[in-house]
Amino acid sequence: MEAYVNQNIQNGISTIEFFHPAHNSLPGTILAKLVKNIHDAGLNNEVKVIILKSGGERTFCAGASFEELININDAETGKVFFSGFANVINAMRKCPKFIIGRIQGKTVGGGVGIASATDYCMATKLASIKLSELNLGIGPFVVGPAVERKLGLSGMSQIAIDANSFYSADWAKQKGLFAQVYESTEEMDDAIQFFAEHLCTYNPDAMKEMKKVFWRGTEDWDDLLAERAAISGRLVLSDFTKETLKKFK
User: Fold this and answer.
1) Which of 20, 84, 117, 227, CA to CA, is 20 to 30 A from 62?
2) What is the reported pTM?
């Protein structure tokens, strides 16, 4: 199957789904399409709530596209690539609609950042998380603020430093990333649909104002995440990272 980003709107619920055959990794084109779809859903008066999900069964998101990482040869190109994740996170925080995350499986790196930027996140017991960036010689600089906002500095630093370990969905729930963890995808999907339909009965203006309250203190993230993208864009050029990426390839 080819990579895609689709949006389907039914009964006030916008479902935005992304997919990439390489374990739902995110090249720049997919990141840009996610930004557009989230922005469009936020402006659409027919939409009252958004569900963000990925295709496939095993992996929610494997993070950055290794193919694109390997081909970065200058700092500006690196900054542009990592800014793709910054743009998605900023689009999610600025969107006036609540975004429900559907995390069906393992989530790595940038995927943890996207899950963290949702307003309410549900997962299955298979949805373990890992911040693997330090393994590559980079670090979770762009997604760090979103992850820290959900897990706290202690939780974020723990998984950022222990970059070789997956942490269970139950751990992520205890830390506040996941609101609920379900035994199966079917059980999770039923719960998400019920929850989204219920949110559609609420006052849209009240939800919009609540979202502003929840994201208060992140007004500097346009600049902050751009600065973080520049750090990652510089580090990805290091000999350490280049050699490590070759091994993964």
Assistant:
1) 227
2) 0.96
